[in-house]
Design goal:
By secondary structure, the chain is mainly alpha-helical. 34% of the residues lie in helices and 0% in strands. The longest helix is centred in the middle third of the chain and has 16 residues. It starts with 21 loop residues before the first helix and ends in a 21-residue tail after the last helix.
Length: 68
């Protein structure tokens, strides 16, 4: 995934979640593995190669409060 295509940030399409499109048919025809690979490629295109890691970042920490 080193050779990512350039991201055209000027191309924007806004639709309703209820709208049926050819995109639905296309992604439903792909295997879960193909979908995950495409998702990873898009994530790298948006956030850049240096800002991606192979693991999840910790976002919450549980702390026990002392009773007063």
């Amino acid at each position: 995934m080193k050779d990512l295509p350039p991201l055209d940030k000027t191309a924007i399409s806004v639709t309703s979640l209820g709208d049926s499109s050819d995109d639905d048919k296309y992604w439903h025809s792909k295997t879960p593995e193909e979908r995950m690979r495409a998702l990873e490629m898009m994530r790298r295109m948006v956030y850049g190669e240096d800002r991606t890691t192979g693991r999840l970042q910790r976002s919450i920490e549980v702390v026990d409060l002392k009773q007063s």
